[in-house]
Amino acid sequence: MKHKPITYHINPDVTNDELNALFAAAWPGYVSSNFEPVLSRSLAYICGCEGDRLVGFINLAWDGGVHAFVLDTTVHPDFQRNGIGRQLVKCAIEAAKECHIEWLHVDYEPHLHHFYRQCGFESTQAGLMNLRVQPAQKSRLT
User: Fold this and answer.
1) CB atoms within 10 A of CB 68
2) Count of alpha carbons within 13 Å of 47, Cβ hemisphere only?
3) CATH 3.40.630.30 is the classification of domain 6-118
C-alpha cells in the first residue's frame, strides 16, 4: 500500500484520542493514558502525520538545563520500516539543538540498539530502577 508523504510538526495540537490510538496500535498491552501532563512539561514533541492522520510521535523530556531525553518513539505498525522513526529522531535532535541542549539521552531495549546507533547515539553505561516492582525485602541485622 502506497502512503502519502509524511509531514513532521513540532508541538502541534494533538489530542489524547489521537495519541492513545497510535500507542494502542504500536504497543501491545498499552493502557490508555492522559498525555496532557506529559506534553505540558516536554521540551518539545514531534508528530509525524500522513495528511491528518497521526502515524508517528516522539517526546523530548528535559531536566531544565542541558540534558534532554528521547522518550516514546512510536510509529504506527502500518508505517514502520519507512524511515519515519529515524526522521522523528532527527527532528528531535534538531529541536534539542535549537533549545541549546548539550546532552541527548535515550534508553532502549536491546532489540533497538541498531536503530538508535543509526540515529547517531553511542552506547553508554547507565542505571535503571523499576519503582513499580518491589525488591525482595532485605532482612535487617540487629
Assistant:
1) 26
2) 19
3) yes
DSSP at 88: H
Per-residue pLDDT of the chain (142 residues; tens, 9 = 90+): 677 899 999 999 999 999 999 999 999 999 999 999 999 999 999 999 999 999 999 999 999 999 999 999 999 999 999 999 999 999 999 999 999 999 999 998 889 999 999 999 998 888 877 888 866 655 455 4
Cα–Cα distance between 57 and 87 in angstroms, integer? 10
Beta bridge partners of 46: 10, 58
Annotated domain spans of the chain: 6-118
103-106 and 67-75 as β-strands: parallel, antiparallel, unpaired? parallel
Q: Is the pTM of this model over 0.90?
A: no
